[in-house]
Amino acid sequence: MERAMTYSTFSAQLADGALAGGQWRADASGLPILAVHGISATHRSWDALADALADRRVIAADLRGRGRSNTLPGPYGLERHADDLAAALDALEVDRVFVVGHSMGAFVSVRLAERHPDRVAGTVLIDGGLPVPNPEGVPAEDLPAVLLGPALERLSMTFPDRAAYLAFWRRHPALGPYWNDAIEAYVQYDVDGEEPALRSSARAEAVAENAVQLDGASGYVEALVALPGPVDFFRAPRGLLDAAPLYPEAVVAEWAGRMPQLVVHEVPDVNHYTIVMTAEGAGSVVPVIRARLEAAEMKEGAS
After folding, report:
1. Domain annotation covers residue 188
2. Which helix (H) or strand (E) holds 296?
3. Does the reported pTM lie above 0.85?
C-alpha cells in the first residue's frame, strides 16, 4: 500500500550537540532505510529517492559539519560520522536499518557496518565507497584542494541573496541542465547565514578533512572487503562536472574481482549527482534496493 509522502525533521542529541536530519513516512512499517549523503551535501539530497520508495520509511541525517549539523565540532572522521548515525538511530528508537550511501556517504556506510554491525541489515553503495587513491607527490595540506577543486572553493563563496545562490547552482554543469523540484529544495535547504553574505551550510574544514580519508587507509579496505553480501554498487557514467566519471569502469571491475559479494550496476545517462537527485536516477536504483530490502526482511523473519 502506497503511503502519503510525509516528511518531518528531527534533532538527535549527541554528547557535544545535536545531529539534525529528516525522515519520510516515519510511520511506515518494515525495515527502514538509512540514507547517507555525500561530502558537501545534506539530507535533502535524498528527496527523489524517498519519493520513489513510496511505502518505506527513509531516515537521513545532516552529517557533522553539514546542513543543520554544521555547528557540531570536529574532528569529522568517517568513523565519527558512523557513530553519530548510530546515536541518531538510538534517539529515533530504530534498531536496524538498510543503509544506502552516496559518494562519501557510501564510505560512512561501510564504517557504520564495521562498527555497528548489529544495526545494519544490508548495504548499497551509490557512486562511492570504493577507495579513491590520493595523488602521489602532493603535500598533505594541498590534497583537499587538488581532490575537490571547485567544490571546495564554493564553500568559501558568499552570495547576496537566495536568488544569487540558486542562480549559481542553475549554472552548475552537473545540476543545471537537470533542474527539478528536488534539486531546488536541496539548494534552498543548503543556504546558510544572513544576507548579504549567504553561503553553503557545509563547513570547509569538515569537507577538507573527509576528502583525504577516501583512499582506503586506516583499515577501510579491510572493512569494505569484509562487508557481508550482497553489496550493490551503482556506477554513474559521468562525474561531478557531468564529464569524466568518478569511477572508471576498469577500477570498478578490479574491485569486483577482489570482492565476490560486490554486484555492479551501470546506471545509464546520469552523473554523480543526478544518480540520486532525479527521478530517472532514483528510478534505476530503487528496484534493486526494494528487492534487497524484501530479502533482508525475509531473512530476519526466518531467523
Report:
1. no
2. helix 279-302
3. yes
